[in-house]
Amino acid sequence: MGIDWQLLSFGPDGWGPVLLKAAGVTVSVSLCAFLLGSVIGSLVAWAKIGGNRWMRRLAEGYTVVLRGIPDLIVIYIFYFGGRQVLAFFGHALGMQGPFDISGFVAGALAIGLISGAGQAEVFRGSYHSIPKGTLEAATVVGMGKWLMFRRVIVPQALTTAIPGLGNQWQSAIKESALVSVTGLVETMNQVQVASGSTQMPFFFFAVGAVIYLLITTVSEFVIRQAEKWSLRGQNYHQL
Fold it and tell me: Of 159, 178, 198, 208, which has the maximum CB count within 10 A?
């Protein structure tokens, strides 16, 4: 059976524009989730490294829970549970419904929390990779904690963290496909609609796979360039 490539055109009968828009939504929700995960991961890593006993326990519990339960459950909790939370506070304040939470917000928050657990371990490992002599030398020359963090810890830790953060970014892109259960029109949702409308599921799911592959391939190139830039002036071997 032949394939009608006009289905991917940008004409009135083609699915090109909506697929392109859906790919943009995929990148957007993944980026928001990754940035949120970076903030959370940094705070959790700090709690594990320099926090008191209770902060370390809370941080450890967070990473254990978020890395141990299915991602889809976290998304459901934020999407459906988020409605209930909004309704509870809305009614308490005397507000009238309906109360809803967008699939984009729920997906970004859920994936951000999931990504934060992974990024916390990346940041923690990167910090411990810094030679102790470097930190001792910074202390000897009179650097305060903030100056040491900005001038010594961040530059050296990020150099080590970039590959791991790249993996977390790629994971966020793939996890974004699960957000389709909220009704958000991203790549996975759109190819499901297209396959159902045209009765060509194999073709459109293959197109969806290509879209994700293009996004991750471009991302991999950017990550490698960032890694090379961070290692400028140093000797390293290209794998």
Answer: 208
Query: How would you class 27 by CB atoms within 10 Å of its CB: exposed for 0-12, middle for 13-18, buried for 19 or more?
Result: middle
Give the N- to C-terminal CA distance of the chain in Å, as an integer: 43
In a domain, 4, yes or no: no
Q: From CA 113, how far away is CA 105, in angstroms rounded?
A: 12
Tally of domains in the chain? 1
Calpha distance 142→177 (Å, rounded): 49
16 in Cβ contact with 8 (< 8 Å): yes
152-175 pLDDT, tens digit per residue, is 888 888 888 999 999 999 999 999
CB 219 within 8 A of CB 169: yes
Q: Does residue 30 surpass a pLDDT of 80?
A: yes
Give the whole-angstrom CA distance, residue 8 versus residue 137.
Answer: 60
Asked, for residue 6, whether it belongs to a domain, the answer is: no
In this prediction the pTM is 0.88
pLDDT in tens, 127-136: 888 888 888 8
Q: How many residues does the chain have?
A: 239
Residue bearing tokens 């790249």: 166
pLDDT given for residue 28 in this prediction: 97
The domain that holds 143 is classified in CATH as 1.10.3720.10
Q: What is the phi/psi pair of residue 93, to 5°?
A: -95, 5
Average pLDDT value for the chain: 88
